[in-house]
Give the backbone structure.
Amino acid sequence: MIDVISYLPARRKSSNSGWISFNAPCCEHNGETRDRRSRGGIKTSDAGWSFHCFNCGYTASFIIGRNLSFKARKLMSWLGVPAEEIERVNLESLRHRNMEGLLSDRQRVSNSLQGIEFEERELPPAAELVTTRHSPHWDYLRSRGVPEDYPVMTVVENDKVHWTRPQVIVPFTYDNRVVGYSCRMLDNRQPKYIHDTQPGYVFGTDLQGSDWRYAIVVEGVFDALSIGGLAVLHAEINDAQVRLIRSLDREVIVVPDQDAAGMKLVDRAVELGWSVSMPDWPDGVKDVNDAVIRWGRVAALITILQARETSRIKIGLRKKQLEKKITRIR
Ligand SMILES: [Zn+2]
């Protein structure tokens, strides 16, 4: 019998939604202070289990019939499960492998050969859709130019088990399955963002129209949401992200944030042979989201398309100009 619950600390609490919370064993291994506030959560089902830490962000999951992943093994060892026991669980799991499992493993191999594969993830416990108009969450989303039809979540206020900070949660999807999320905290405390993301993930593929000619690549989730773009989630584009973006088969226009970090993105875009747009926005408008908030989606898009450059030399010149402006503003 594969029963992860028997490995959990004795001090734990179950919520109505099926999550069991306990002091997360992961944080101290991930450069965070030890969890003393029961911020680890695990949910089990007949198919396996899924773990999230709301302190350091560690996640791991396990599906019966499959091998224990590296992250699931680490989690189990942090819970004090001996190595032999972990191996026993793995063997036990593989005994449950059926034909369906073998077929889906094969599909996974083929997807992973293309470098495009993300595991399904759970949203935070107690996450609910933001549907109440003129609530603080609703107003925040509108003020950031998020389309009303994008399903943004929040946590119910009476959930004391996990977070009590006011926040909005943007689900990360790929092929319309949830594969992670980004939380934007609405108080002024740090951290402002907490992401649960997977290597090589690009946000916004499900926002793309099938007949669109361009894919606009930006850094942040809110930039992407407000313009219907793709977010690489930091000021770099890794090779797996490049493969995913190329798989969309359209002209790519990278629109960097107009700050020092954004300039690194320009170099990467040039290296990849992608177009870059660095519109001449006024002070106070430093990224796509600022531009959409100020002028609206269509007008912001026009400034981006007008400033689109494909020539390496012209991109270099524009970048120099912008770098001067950035140092001046600082
Ligand atoms: Zn942790």
